[in-house]
Design goal:
Layout: H1 2-17, E1 20-27, E2 34-42, E3 50-58, E4 62-71, E5 77-81, E6 87-91, E7 94-98, E8 106-109, E9 119-127, E10 130-135, H2 139-145
Antiparallel strand pairs: 1-2, 2-3, 3-4, 5-6, 5-9, 6-7, 7-8, 9-10
């Protein structure tokens, strides 16, 4: 009986550990209370696709999780901010608009907005085997460094 339990554990552990559950946040204004967080979940190790979700949070007022659909391990998620303060989330060719005042608004955008995408704030991507948010340097700071 003991051998059977050991074999079961040895067979189940690789199945569970091969799944993906990554989370990383961008602190919008430098605080943990105002964030956009990307969640990547792969419930089955044999599936090459991952489920992507974006959590919009401005505590204590609101927190909401929205689906970005399916992606792969290499899917990059770009974050733009328009002058009104709203965000455009770009995943491949798919785009979504959201805001962090109520965290409720979430809409699929079929084409680039007439006023443009806004300022690229950063990209969620894989680097050296881990998910990270790479912030875009503001143009003024980049000009100062030259």
């Amino acid at each position: 009986m003991r051998l059977r339990a050991l074999l079961t554990v040895l067979l189940v552990v690789p199945l569970v550990t091969a799944c993906v559950d990554d989370r990383v946040s961008w602190q919008i204004d430098g605080t943990r209370e105002h964030t956009l967080s990307l969640i990547r979940e792969q419930p089955f190790f044999w599936d090459k696709k991952v489920e992507l979700s974006m959590v919009v949070s401005r505590m204590p007022a609101c927190t909401r999780r929205h689906s970005l659909g399916m992606g792969t391990e290499k899917t990059r998620v770009e974050v733009y901010q328009v002058p009104s303060g709203a965000f455009i989330i770009k995943v491949g060719r798919r785009m979504y608009a959201t805001e962090s005042q109520t965290c409720i608004e979430w809409a699929r955008i079929e084409e680039e907005p007439a006023g443009g995408m806004g300022e690229l704030r950063g990209i969620f991507r894989m680097r050296n085997g881990s998910l990270e948010f790479v912030a875009e340097k503001p143009e003024a700071a980049a000009d100062d460094e030259e």
